[in-house]
């Protein structure tokens, strides 16, 4: 995107407002999985302020039992330059700041530089309900 230098502050303010006021959570992590962007909807869903999330690992919101498969898929996507779901959303589990588990619908993509090199990953998401395919009529023992 090209802009003249006089308009650059207004453009930066515009994009900052878009990110902060987006109706979905927006999370960007670098190639190593360190959070670099965290908007107000991410705070509303996961409980962490941007100042508490930025600079920390994505493990912050990934339940312990999902970390190994998450990191295998994350590093594979960074390596081959493509996510497994190609931007299609998936309902998965996450961990809130208070330690509770929640369902979130997340869509993942890769963030690229001008030469198409992978800089990291971006996720957009929203709170979700337990998928019907995971519901049972008996008591639940979820963790």
Explain what the structure shows:
The structure is a single chain. The protein has helices at residues 8-21, 40-46, 50-53, 64-80; strands at residues 25-30, 35-38, 90-95, 101-112, 118-128. It has 143 residues and is an alpha+beta fold. The protein has one domain: PAS domain (Beta-Lactamase, 2-Layer Sandwich). It has a 5-stranded antiparallel β-sheet with strand order 2-1-5-4-3. A hairpin with a 5-residue loop joins strand 3 and strand 4 (101-112).
Percentage of residues in DSSP E strands: 25-35%
Q: Give the tally of structural domains.
A: 1
Supply the number of helical segments.
4
From the alpha carbons, calculate the radius of gyration and give it in angstroms.
Answer: 17 Å
Shape: globular
CATH topology: Beta-Lactamase
**Helix content bin:** 25-40%
Strand order of the largest sheet: 2-1-5-4-3
CATH architecture: 2-Layer Sandwich
| Stretches with pLDDT under 50, minimum 5 residues | 138-143
């Amino acid at each position: 995107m090209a802009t003249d230098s006089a308009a650059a502050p207004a453009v930066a303010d515009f994009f900052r407002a878009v990110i902060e006021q987006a109706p979905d959570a927006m999370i960007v992590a670098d190639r190593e999985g360190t959070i670099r962007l965290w908007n107000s909807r991410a705070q509303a869903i996961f409980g962490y302020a941007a100042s508490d999330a930025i600079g920390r690992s994505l493990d912050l919101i990934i339940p312990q039992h999902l970390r190994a498969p998450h990191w295998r898929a994350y590093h594979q996507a960074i390596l081959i330059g493509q996510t497994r779901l190609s931007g299609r959303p998936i309902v998965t589990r996450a961990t809130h700041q208070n330690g509770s588990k929640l369902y979130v619908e997340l869509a993942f993509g890769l963030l690229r530089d001008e030469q198409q090199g992978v800089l990291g990953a971006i996720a957009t998401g929203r709170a979700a309900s337990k998928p019907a395919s995971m519901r049972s009529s008996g008591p639940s023992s979820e963790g």
